[in-house]
Amino acid sequence: TTPLNLATLPFAVSFHIFRNSKQDKILVDPPQELVQYCAAKVFMVVDGKNVLFMRTRGVIRDDQFLSTMSALAERRHQDILDAIRDDGGRSAL
Hints:
This is Choline/carnitine acyltransferase domain-containing protein. By secondary structure, the protein is of the alpha+beta class. The protein has one domain. Helix content is 29%, strand content 30%. It has a four-stranded antiparallel beta sheet with strand order 2-1-3-4, covered by helices on one side. The radius of gyration is 16 Å and the shape is elongated. The relative contact order is 0.20.
C-alpha cells in the first residue's frame, strides 16, 4: 500500500460556551459532565493556517469569541504538531 501524504495535518477541536449571569466563558474540549450545562457549541477543523470547517450550535453573543476560538484552535494545532515532532515520529497518528 502507498502511504497517504498530506500537505497539512487537519485537527479538530470543540468549544463550548458556559453562560452565567455575569459573563460567558469558553471551554475547550470540556469533559462530558460539563457539556450539558453549556449554552452553545462550536466545532472547528484547522490545518495550521485556515479554519477548514466550522459548525455552531446555539447562540454566541460575543462576535469576538469566534476569533478567540480560531486562535485557540490554531495554537492547539501547533502544540500537537510540536509534540509529534518532539516524539520523533514514534507515535502513530
